[in-house]
Design a protein that fits this description.
Elements: H1 3-11, H2 15-30, H3 38-47, E1 53-59, H4 66-77, E2 80-83, H5 84-90, E3 94-98, E4 103-106, H6 108-121, E5 122-127, E6 141-146, H7 149-158, H8 163-174, H9 177-185, E7 191-195, H10 199-214
Parallel strand pairs: 1-5, 1-6, 2-5, 6-7
Antiparallel strand pairs: 3-4
Helix pairs in contact: 1-2, 4-10, 7-8
This protein binds adenosine-5'-triphosphate and magnesium ion.
Region (LID): 158-168
GO molecular function: AMP kinase activity; ATP binding; ATP hydrolysis activity
Subunit structure: Interacts with small ribosomal subunit protein uS11. Not a structural component of 43S pre-ribosomes, but transiently interacts with them by binding to uS11.
Length: 222
């Protein structure tokens, strides 16, 4: 199946959207030549001559496969995988437990302070089910994983989520909350929605992102 066909089927985007998306990926690949595509220029400016490696944010509703993709991508690219949920627990970057939502109340300021140096250095893959509180300048690429509702329901049920948590997360996916949040928080040319229903999707997403990382220019080359 063509990328544009599955895009239409799963995301409701037109073929033109996907042609444009693929063109953008090609632009990213060709920007090491220094021929200033809009995206290439944006990335260079964001890198600001400081970051030698890109920062990627992988976001999406819980259960869409962020940690799975980030782990594989970090392994292949040797970038640093930062699982924000784990970091919050390890370093107590929260304001206690929310019984109703059944999760920690993340302290966004503490998280941003904790991550600032690493993000300035570059070379990070940040894994979190939210994206609107990170500084926009941190990321060169924002991946939003999306999963079919029935598949996601099964994954989250297997985790033993209680009913309210399960339905909150499924609603979040149905209404594409994370995609909207990403588009509102980052320039649209950085936001990459990616389907994450099956193993083939994992392989394709990791391959696409690996390619993107490998072609990200060092400041000295740009
Ligand atoms: N594309 C996929 N195809 C099949 N199974 C997948 C896929 N992505 C993830 N999974 C499986 O779904 C489950 C949830 O994946 P994962 O823990 O990576 O999600 P997550 O987005 O990191 O969730 P959370 O936000 O709760 O940390 C795991 O059992 C994983 O193996
Ligand atoms: Mg995870």
């Amino acid at each position: 199946m063509l990328y544009s066909e599955f895009g239409m089927r799963y995301f409701g985007h037109s073929e033109n959207y996907w042609v444009d998306f693929i063109m953008r990926l090609k632009d990213m690949r060709s920007r090491t030549t220094g021929v200033g595509s809009e995206i290439g220029v944006t990335v260079m400016e964001l890198g600001n001559g400081k970051r030698r490696k890109p920062n990627i944010l992988v976001t999406g509703t819980p259960g869409t496969g962020k940690t799975t993709v980030c782990t594989a991508l970090a392994e292949v690219t040797q970038l640093r995988h930062i699982n924000v949920g784990e970091l919050v627990k390890e370093k107590n970057l929260h304001d206690g437990w929310d019984d109703e939502l059944d999760c920690y109340v993340i302290n966004e300021d503490l998280v941003c302070d904790e991550l600032e140096d690493a993000m300035e250095e570059g070379g990070n893959i940040v894994d979190y089910h939210g994206c609107d509180f990170f500084p926009e300048r941190w990321f060169d690429c924002v991946v939003v994983l999306q999963t079919n509702n029935t598949i996601l329901y099964d994954r989250l049920s297997r985790r033993g989520y209680k009913d309210s948590k399960l339905s909150n997360n499924i609603e979040c996916e149905i209404f594409q909350v994370l995609l909207e949040e990403a588009k509102e928080s980052y320039s649209e040319d950085k936001v990459m929605p990616m389907k994450s229903d099956d193993i083939d999707d994992i392989n394709r997403n990791v391959a696409t992102l690996t390619d993107w990382v490998r072609n990200w220019p060092l400041p000295s080359q740009s």
